[in-house]
Amino acid sequence: MTPDERLERFAELTVRVGANVQEGQDVVLIYLVEHAEIARAVARSALAAGARRVLPVITDLHLRRAAIELGPDEELGKTPEHILDWMRSWRETRPAIIQLTGDPDPDLFAGLDPTLVARADANDARAVYLPLVMERLVNWTIVSAPNPGWAEVVFGEPDVERLWDAVGTTMRLDMDDPVTAWQEHAALLERRAAGLTEARFDAIRFRGPGTDLVVGLLPGSLWKCATFETASGIGHLPNIPTEEVFTTPDWRRTEGTVRSTYPLVVPGVGARVEGLELRFEGGKIVDVRADGDGADVIRGQLANDEQAPYLGEVALVDGASRVRQSGVVFCNTLFDENASCHLAYGTGIPLAVEGAEGLAPDALVELGVNVSAVHTDFMVGGDEVEVDGLAADGTARAIIRDDAWVL
Fold it and tell me: Exposed site from 72, 105, 188, 234, fewest CB < 10 Å?
């Protein structure tokens, strides 16, 4: 397979399976300036699939650094009102949304005040966008675009071809028919999710080095995988690759300590956090530790709103994951979360709770579904981490042992 053929497969999979762009639908394509070549291929594929038009949203993180260094603090993280108004219009126009990630310069914000770095994230835009996703009004996907800066972090050298090989393997671009391969893989994840929902666990317990954590579930918690469907019936895969099954926990019922097993590149902030350890009491993160100034970055996110320090997602992944088997730590949350079980602090996922869809934010919080402008995943699984499902009486049932799915 030539690089051009690989890029074409990447773009087609993103458009036709990830976002599942519909005939006559607008496509909002969000990417960094460094992703331009890949964005062009995705745009061509979207138009070939019948998109009415492709609307680019292009970001330059160097401009964000300049704003942090030189601009007024009170303007950090503020999105122009006309952009927010356009995003609000998506509730009616319902475009397909494709986002390219893959940090081209992970050290760009090094040396800056981590509190200001966290504040510079556009949480006002996220607060408009997340309800569209949670209410299943848009078909969307996020995929990662290989680039020299990302390759430098992963391999210690800007070997983009090597990174492409690793990404292509995890995305099943090496299969004769990647679309069929993804359909079969999705069916496996759907069976796992159905089994967990049927078990009706009261809580999930994680135990391993530095980790002894119990995450309480809701009576109506439903286990899902990344085979989403919009309210109008458009199926899509929000993340490619995906290896997880997940649900929304009760934000009030997490207790214990947890140590992240992978580096965390904080979404929207770009800061890399290693050695992350969190302690929960009454559902809330009450202590944050990390190497260097990583803890301050996390605390900045947790201070974003009242519900940010509570969990919104628990997800399970075993060692059969293609991301895990690649042996690569991608230093990219959307990949690394698919190598390992993970948790997310911040907003929950209403579609993973019976009777939650369509409820107002206050009603969701009262039900036990977290609502926040933040949603940050961090990895907690691996060879040494045991995962159990707990019944209401405390009886444990093994889900993952020795990195293998046993339920």
Answer: 72
Are the C-beta atoms of residues 116 and 73 closer than 8 Å to each other?
A: yes
- Contact present, 245 and 186 (Cβ < 8 Å): no
Which of 34, 90, 85 has the alpha carbon at shortest distance from 62? Answer: 34
Q: What is the full DSSP assignment across 337-364?
A: TTSS-EEEEE---GGGBTTTTT--HHHH
pTM of the model: 0.77
Q: Which residue in this structure is represented by tokens 């969000």?
A: 30
What does the longest C-alpha to C-alpha distance in the chain come to?
57
Residue 205 tokens read as 């317990």
Distance (Å, rounded) from C-alpha 110 to C-alpha 113? 9
User: Pairing relation of β-strands 26-32 and 404-405?
Assistant: unpaired
What is d(CA 171, CA 156) in angstroms, rounded to the nearest whole number? 22
Q: At what angle do helices 160-170 and 3-12 cross, to 10 degrees?
A: 40
Report the half-sphere exposure of 39 (CA within 13 A, side-chain side). 23
Residues 6+ apart with CB under 8 A from 327: none
pLDDT of 294-337, one tens digit each?
999 999 999 989 999 999 999 999 999 999 989 888 888 788 88
Closest CA to 324 of 239, 246, 383: 383
β 245-247/224-225 pair status: antiparallel
Closest CA to 224 of 200, 252, 202, 196: 196
Span 130-177, pLDDT tens digits: 889 888 899 999 999 999 999 998 999 999 999 999 999 999 998 888
Looking at residue 189, its amino acid is L
> Which amino acid is present at 298?
I
Residue 18: helix, strand or coil by DSSP? helix
Closest CA to 349 of 135, 137, 134: 134
| Gap between the Cα atoms of 105 and 266, Å rounded | 13
Residues 32 and 104 sit within 8 Å (Cβ to Cβ): yes
Q: Which amino acid is at 170?
A: T
